[in-house]
Design a protein that fits this description.
mainly alpha, Growth Hormone, Chain: A, 79% helix, globular
Length: 428
């Protein structure tokens, strides 16, 4: 008698070892990004003598545009060829990045390095997101995304702090970027030797998947998924615009806030502290907000988080002291922590497992396109009305995004929907 094959087990406990390994891998992905947060804006100003803010932000435009497009292909490729090959490709592309930043003779080399960094982040970070969603199944997506994004952004914070200290003692180059080279070596080694393919988990879940009311079952063309995520499906498209605006204000924070703090006379270690506080509270907060969204729903966290970010940006625009900037950075990180894992969890709630990887990739296309849009907008506005004026405008856009989610998005988490007895399930 032949035994009936048993599919892979879903759930955090059943896949704990592989899940924790992917958390570590994503921390390394985030750490590579963190090598730039403190040092690169000052490098452009001090070594390459860039005076126009729009010119100085070209590396963020290159990074954001490349990462956004790569996110799209990461989802499609991981559906077609599997998750692990895409993850490995992301690490291979990253190998030259720290070396190019160390030896860059012109700003063009820095921009080119950030094109490669965008490919790395789009392939590797997207794939760790998809793999964790595959492993945990539908019940604990908020927790999974909270842990994933917490690992990535805590690594960004720790590396921003470390590179600020290294730059203060050893100069802007090469010491801070040697840390990035070590991250690439360890990340590639772990991904090659220990990470296992998870596409089978998604196929197993697809057999018993229960969709949110109004969502689409079965396989869809990539064009159909794109229209759903971009504008047609209320929850998916609301998440996409909120993600774009979230990273728009992060592009502003990454590219211009260190310059604002330096102009106020802050030392490199203090700038490093401010550059680290925001992603640190962003990362730590997600450990709390992700699981809470599994209990209380996605929509409240997204709305409140966007409005909290708007308040924090207004405080940064008006502040003139280290203490107030530190408080605003903490508030900005807390607001982002409410939004970041919750948006990804909402995409996972609505998208069918058969096309979920593509939905995640398209959402991340819009979200990380916010880096490029933010750098373009912030650079133009900063040249015209100054960094503080640009920050006020972005604060207003962030508040408007939160209000749009409040008006258009429905609750996507099934448990929260069942508990919301005062409103019809599936109402928009």
């Amino acid at each position: 008698m032949t035994a009936t094959p048993v599919g892979p087990r879903l759930g955090l406990r059943a896949n704990a070892a592989q899940f924790l390994l992917l958390v570590v891998v994503n921390a390394l992905v985030g750490g590579l990004l963190g090598t730039e947060r403190t040092v690169l804006p000052l490098l452009g100003q001090r070594e390459f003598h860039l005076t126009a803010y729009s010119a100085a932000l070209t590396y963020i435009i290159a990074f954001g545009a490349t990462k956004a497009v790569t996110n799209f292909f990461a989802g499609t490729l991981s559906d077609r060829y599997g998750r692990k090959p895409v993850l490995l490709a992301g690490w291979l592309v990253a190998i030259p990045v720290p070396l190019m930043l160390i030896w860059a003779p012109t700003w063009g080399w820095v921009v080119a390095a950030n094109v490669l960094l965008g490919v790395n982040q789009g392939l590797a970070w997207s794939t760790t997101v998809i793999m964790k969603i595959d492993l945990v199944g539908p019940r604990r997506r908020g927790l999974a995304m909270g842990l994933n994004e917490a690992a990535g952004y805590l690594a960004v914070a720790a590396t921003a702090l470390a590179t600020g200290a290294l730059a203060a003692h050893y100069g802007l180059r090469p010491a801070p970027f040697l840390l990035g080279a070590a991250y690439v070596a360890v990340g590639l080694g772990l991904s090659s030797l220990l990470v296992r393919e998870t596409r089978g988990h998604a196929h197993h879940e697809a057999a018993t998947h229960q969709v949110v009311d109004g969502a689409h079952q079965g396989d869809l063309t990539t064009r159909q998924v794109f229209t759903l995520v971009s504008w047609r499906e209320p929850a998916l498209s609301s998440a996409s615009q909120a993600g774009l605006v979230n990273n728009l204000n992060d592009g502003l924070a990454w590219g211009l806030f260190p310059v604002l703090f330096a102009a106020a006379g802050l030392s490199l270690p203090r700038i490093g502290v401010l550059a680290a506080l925001y992603p640190a509270f962003w990362g730590l907060g997600q450990i709390i907000t992700g699981p809470l969204s599994d209990r209380f729903g996605r929509k409240p966290f997204i709305v409140v988080g966007m409005l909290t970010q708007a308040v924090a940006l207004g405080l940064i625009a008006g502040a003139r002291s280290f203490g107030l900037w530190a408080a605003a950075a903490v508030l900005l990180g807390a607001g982002t922590a409410m939004v970041y894992p919750t948006l990804l969890a909402a995409i996972g709630d609505v998208a069918h497992p058969v096309w979920r990887a593509r939905a995640v990739g398209i959402y991340r296309l819009w979200r990380d396109g916010g880096f490029a849009v933010g750098a373009l907008l912030a650079g133009f506005l900063a040249d015209v009305i100054g960094i503080r004026g640009a920050t006020w405008v972005v604060a207003a856009l962030t508040a408007a995004s939160g209000l749009l989610v409040a008006g258009r998005m429905y609750e996507t988490h099934r448990g929260a929907r069942r508990r919301a007895v005062d409103r019809p399930v599936g109402s928009v």
